Each structure stands twice: as structure tokens, then as C-alpha cells.
Amino acid sequence: MTPTLIGRWQTRVFLLATIGGLATLPFYFGLTGHGGSLIYFWVLFYVGLIGCGWDVLYNFLMGWMWDHDWPGFLQLLAGIWEGLFLGTVLTITGLPYIPTQRFYLGDFILHYSFVWVCIYLSSWVVMRILFPRWRFRGGEWLGKWPYSRG
Amino acid sequence: MQIQLSWEDPITEEQQEPIFPLPFAFGRDLTQLPNEWQGKEVSRAVFTSQEISRYHALIYRSEDGQVIYEDRSANGSRINGEKIRQARRVLQGGEVVQFGPYSVTVSLVPSGDPSATLLTSAHRGTRTLLLEPPTDLIRPNTRTDVDIPPSSTIVFAPEQSPDSRSASEFPPPLFQAEQISLSALQATGLPVEEAEYLALGGGMGSFVWVDTIRIHGVKPEQIRVISIAKKPYERYDRLLNNCQIPRWKRIRSGSDSCPDNIWGWPGYALRDARRSFFSGRVLEALGFLWQVFSEPLLADTYTPRAGDVFASMDREAARIGWDQMLRYGHIRAIRKTEDGRYVVAYSATRPGYTDHRFMVAKYLHLATGYPAIKLLNDLQEFRERTGDLKSVVHGYEPHPHVYEYLEKQGGTILIRGFGIVASQVMDRVYEARKINPRISVVHLSRSPKSGNRFGRAKREVDNHWEFQPYNWPKGTWGGDLRAKLEAATPLERRELLEVWGGTTTASRRKWRRAVRQGLREGWYSIVFGKVESVVLSDKGKPVTYIQGTHNNTQMKVEADFVIDCTGLVSDPMTNPLLNDLITRYNLPLNPHGRLHVSNDFELVEMRNRDGRMYAAGIITLGGPYAPVDTFLGLQYCAHRSAEHLVRVRAPGMKTLEGIGSLWQWCKWALNLRP
Q1: Of the four, B5, B157, B309, B646, which is 20 to 30 A from A133 by CA?
Q2: What is the pTM (predicted TM-score) of this model?
């Protein structure tokens, strides 16, 4: 799928809110790690919030590629990079609602990886099957065709 | 003195060779070009690109008889690579002038040259002079460069085959009118069939459209397809075979551009991987997945095998009831009816009996594909003069005799063109060299390639082959380039397409290695220049005389075979059916002379009350979507027109989204009727 910036944002927010939310439930209910906590959902929120910023950067970088495309491989690199960044910030300074003393890096890595894999697979499969127009519109699953005439 | 400019159209890849009397001015804006210079009338041409100035340059003959190029632009021009800006320079024949994305070879033609007159009459003026200022569109009656299919055209199985015996009596005289009444049709006594939806042309475009509206809820009883082909991939398969892609070879198409699956999942790579995995070839399976995961950065782009594509289409055709909807026939004419529908006159005539029919439908879809293939002018002249159809061939014509001969006798071939067909021919020659190493290849290029630029990006070039995974950058499929093109005006679209398009091939390691090896070992060479003539030698071989790009050097290439690997003809005016439709209803054309469609791929001028008509494929090139002649492009066109049909509440059409879409996908996966 070759994305537009708005498409990146929409897909990111939608998948984090749905698939990401579902994938976070086992962590929230404490089935793994240091017991259940709302923190996992706050992590999800920051992945989305900071991610929308990253998307602007990715969209800019894409301009150097002749195809203006975003292969799966770069998606993976971006996922790793975003995880590293957020993990570092949460370990060192923490973020509102995620104080450093209640943050466990091991749990974060497990949670983040699990959510990311679920979302990655969904973006290849679920989005295409549920929203046939999604890939034709650069990842925009909401709204009408822009500039539609006639 | 006249000047002939020759270049390859960056969008259609067709050869352009117009002749202009001097003085001659060109630029981006016709109104900025002078009408008169030193008392002489100026011939003018418009080239569209933001890198070209409104009044870019003037070419004139000085008092001492030299031809002078005077640059007047902001960005400058390059003559044989040497940059000039706001300056004059003597121009010689054979030199290459570059301005913006154009690379134009100049020939000087004395005014009295009879062959020049011939060319001039074949290319009257320039195309861009004919745009209607308020819309940027062309009206066919203002277009002066329209020709009936030229003699240098090889027409392959058009939807409307010329059938001289019956052409005079069918379609009947009532088709002279723009609107036809149903009673008049019935009065002819010929069979009249009615349907809601009608696809014209039974090729890939029609198949994808019918598949899409079937999945959106339309029943097979409501749809008809008129075609002379039994299989939707018939013509495509034949072209592939001719250009050395048998079914087991891989075509230049993406993994998720599946004509049998409108969701694009599972793509061909996954299906390929599954097959390989269950045949015990685990590494191969992982290889395919790695390709789609990392293309084109770390691996060659994944492409499916032609045979697999066709097999999956056969399955889908059976699922949606393709044969049930198919009607055999050559399409003769399309007209509006008085009751807000359309009537199509078609002829199912077979040897031995005459059978003319009408089909009336409310929703029409036109996807007739490429009307013809065209040999380069000098090669066609050679063929006409010598009657030799064996030593000069088009890459899209059957030409296995070339390789059989080379494998036995060895020899030299001259390849013209650097596109995907040239790659396939090179690949075939490489295989032939394993049998007989006494084969050499001369590759002719008009000028050295440097790679197009767009924004911060530059297209990759290696040994003058330009690479792009598919024929348009992937961003034009769905991403930002798609959005940009759709939002643009017709003229802006042309500018964008000129930068993104052009002759390119796929970067495949094997091919690039063969080129490098050939250059190193000396059996492959690239020459630069413009062909002056192709003549038959004493030994009965085609000899090509080339005017080199530097200082009028002359070159002579004697080859056993010349293979023309340049493009297909996509001009709808060369298709008699489309020509008739366009002229009858005065349909506007886009700046590239192709059908002007709305962003929903509707032919808005063909609206007939509730009746709607759509077009897809190459006949819409230059419009709202770039890769219209690819599998994905056909799906895009079908998707857009299907959404439009839902919006106008066409019968049977339901929105395809969410659970409904999942349900339809499950039916696809389980091979149940939609």
C-alpha cells in the first residue's frame, strides 16, 4: 500500500484504537507481566500521539524515494525505531500517567511487540478485506473521495 | 530550411517527429510565443513542464545560413549535454537538445525535400495548439493531427474488425442519428436484446469491471459482455507470448494486483509461497515473502507468473458466471437511445452466415485496450519497400524465427527501444547465446539517459536502462502521487505524467547482470543517434544508417535482424469504434488525445438521463489516474465506477464495506458465487 499522510494517520489511529485495544486487553487484565494496569492503554495512546508526528517525518522521507512507496521492511524499521524511542523516554523521564517507578521495560517490550505485530498483520489483511477502497486511497478508510467531480 | 524534432512522448511512448519551418519558437505558454520574427511568420509549439519557460527558445536561420538556437529561458537548455542559458549557439543536425524533461533530436531538412513534405503532412502542426482554453481539453473537431490508422500500424484483433463485405449495410442508416428510438430498432427486424449492464470488449478491463459489479451485488442475468475473445486474457496472453513471456515466466505486475481478487489479498506472493511451501521448497517460499516485504530496496520486486494469473482468472470467471454473460461479436457502433439508455450494434457474423444484432443497456463500460501496435516509421518503410517481414520485426509480433536463426547461425540483432520488451528480448538473446555464443546485440538509443527527477527523487539509471518497478511510480497507485494527479487540471496532469512516465524497465538482477556482462565481453553495445534510413544490403540484410549525436557522425549497423521494442498505439482515434463514438458525440479528449473521463471514470458527455457510461484502461491515459493499463489500474477504474454506480443507485449495486465486504471475501475464498 502506498500511503498518503492523512492515510497514515487514519490507519494508525484506527488500528491502534481497535486491534491495538484488543491486543492490550490481556495485559490490562494482568494475564502477563507485573499485573493489570491502565498504563498499557496510556502506552497505546502515546504510540498513537507520537506516531502521528513520526508519520510527518516518514512522509517527508518518502519524497526521496522515486516510488513514494513504503515497503513492509521500512514499516518494520519504523516500528522498531518508535519502540526504542518511546521505551527510552518512558524509562528515563516517564510521561503523564506513566511514572517511571511504575514502568517495567520488559512488560513494555512484550506489550509493544505484541500490539505491533497484530497491527502490522491487520494492515496487510484486515484493512484490505474490510475496506476495499482503503489501499486505493493511500490508507484513508474514512470519508469520501477527495476532489470527486461529476 | 525546416527543422525536424524527434522525441519519444513521455506518456504514450509513441515517436513524435513533427517538422516546423524556421523560424520556430517553443515554450510552455502559446500566448507568450511570437507570431512574427523579423518579418517572417513563426511556427510555434507548446511543451508542458514547469521546468520549461513560457517562451523557452527560438530557432532561426542566420544571414550566413547557419541555424541558431537562442535560449530565452530561466532554466536554460542543454545541447549535446552542454548547458546554455539566455545565449545563442549554432545548431547542427543530429544534435540533442534537452529542455525540461524533453530530450529532442534535431534534424535539419531542406524545404524542398519530398520526404519531409510527406512527414509534415502526416504530422500537421503540434497537438498542444488545439487545446480549448477554458477546459484544457481537446474537441475532436479541432484536432488536426487525427489520422485514420496509418499504414505503419499493425492492428491486432480490435473489438471492431473491419468486415468490408457487410460494413456497408450494418449498422443500418438509422445509426446516423445521435439518438435512436427503440421502435426504429425493432423495425429493422434484427434481434434486440436488453440488459442493465453492458461491458464492451471482453479483455482484462471488462473482466475486472464485471467482477467488481458482480461482487457489489449485480446478478449475471443483468450483465452482458460483448467480445470476440473466449477468455478475458486472450489478447494479453498473445502479446506476452509474442514478446517472449511464455506462461511460466514472470510478468511486470505487483503481488497484490490480482484481477481475480478485488481485495488484493492474498496476493500472488503469498499464494506462490504457499504452493512452494507445500511442495517442500521452503527456502523458495520464504524468498517470495522476503521479496514482497523488502522490495524494491533490498530485493528485486516480486512479480507473478503469467500462467498463475490466468489460472486464477479462470477460477474467478467460473465463479462469477463469465461465460453466461459473454456474447460473441464485433462491436460496430454505440448510440444513445431516446429512452435514456444506449444501444450497441454488433456483428456475430461467422464464416458462412451473417448475424447482426443490437444490445440495449442502461449502464455501459468501455474497455477496448490498445487498438494497435505500430512499427517505427523507418522500419515500416523498409518493410513496404522490400516486402521483407522476417528481418525487421516488432517485439509484440510473433518472431521466434529470430532466435531459432541466431541459435543455429549466430549473428547480430539491433534492438530499438529500452522498455520492458527490450529487456525480455535481451533475456531471450542471453539464453540463445548459451547455445551459440556468436550472437551480438547492438542497442540503439536516441540519447544518453540521465534519469527523470521529481521533487527530491531521481529515477535510477544503469547503462542507459531506466528502472522503475512498474510502468509508473508506486506512489501513483494509491498514495500521494495518486492524490496529486487526481487533484490536478488536465494540463497539470500532463506535466506530472511527463515526469513520472517514459520508457522504463524493471530492475531485475539477472537482466542487469546480462547487460553488464555483455558490455564487458563486447557482445552488447549501445549506440546513440537517430536513424536516417534502413535499407537492404547486397547480402539481403537490413542496414541501419544512423546520424550520431555528435557533429553529424554517420554510423552504419549491419544486422541480421532489427527488433522494434517501442510501444503500443493507445490513440483512441485509431480505433474505428471509438473514432465513431468520439466524432458522433463530439466527446472531449484530454491533452493526450485520450478519452476525457471524470474522476469516477465516467464519460460525462455520454450521459443519457439515467444512463451512464464509463471507460477504463489505456484509452483513458492522461486522465485522473496514471497506471490505467495495469492490473491494479483496471481494478482502480472498476472500483471508482462501481462506487459511482452505487451513488446513482444503479439496480443491484450495494455498498461494499465492512462486514459485507468480509462476507464477499469469504465467498471468494470458498469459491462460492458472489
Answers
A1: B309
A2: 0.92
> Would the CA dihedral through B462, B466, B471, B475 be positive or negative?
positive
B279 CB near a chain A CB, below 8 Å? no
Residue B188's domain comprises: 173-253+303-371+570-669
Q: Which chain B positions have a beta carbon within 8 Å of A125's beta carbon?
A: 265
Which residues make Cβ contacts (< 8 Å) with residue B52, sequence separation at least 6? B27, B28, B73, B75, B99, B100, B102
B238 and B248 share a domain?
A: yes
The set of cell numbers assigned to B257 is: 494486483
Q: Is the pLDDT of residue B132 over 60?
A: no
Over 60: is that where the pLDDT of B128 sits?
Answer: no
Q: How many CB pairs under 8 A join A and B?
A: 134
From chain A, pick out residues whose CB is under 8 angstroms from the CB of B457. Answer: 63-66, 68
Within this chain, do residues B233 and B343 fall inside the same structural domain, yes or no?
A: yes
Contacts of B662 in chain A (CB under 8 A): 129-130
B386-410 mean pLDDT: 94
Of residues B661 and B569, more confidently modeled: B661
Domain match, B392 and B353 both: no
B658 touches chain A (CB under 8 A): yes
Q: What is the pLDDT of residue B147?
A: 44
Q: Is B298 on the interface with A (CB under 8 A)?
A: yes
Tell me if residue B170 falls in helix, strand or coil: coil
Task: Name which of A2, A73, A129 is nearest B474 (Cβ-Cβ).
Answer: A2
Quick one: cell of A124?
496487510
pLDDT of residue B141: 63
> B417 and B547 share a domain?
yes
- Shared domain for B288 and B274, answered yes or no, is yes
Q: Does B586 touch chain A (CB under 8 A)?
A: no
Q: Are residues B537 and B417 in the same domain?
A: yes
| Chain A contact present for B636, CB below 8 A | yes
Cell numbers placing A83: 519502540
Shortest alpha-carbon distance between residue A94 and chain B (Å): 34
Counting the structural domains of chain B, the total is 4
ipTM for the complex shown: 0.95
Which sequence spans correspond to the domains of chain A? 5-137
Q: Does A102 touch chain B (CB under 8 A)?
A: no
The secondary structure of residue B305, as a DSSP letter, is B
Position B167 scores a pLDDT of 52
For residue B157, tell me if it sits in a domain: no
Q: Do A148 and B264 touch (CB under 8 A)?
A: no
Among residues B226, B257, B252, B225, the alpha carbon closest in space to that of B239 is found at B252
Model confidence at A64: pLDDT above 70: yes
Q: What is the pLDDT of residues B338-368, one digit of tens each?
A: 999 999 999 998 888 899 999 999 999 999 9
Q: Is residue B203 part of a domain?
A: yes
By the 8 A CB rule, do B525 and B442 touch? yes
The reply to whether A143 touches chain B by the CB within 8 Å rule is no
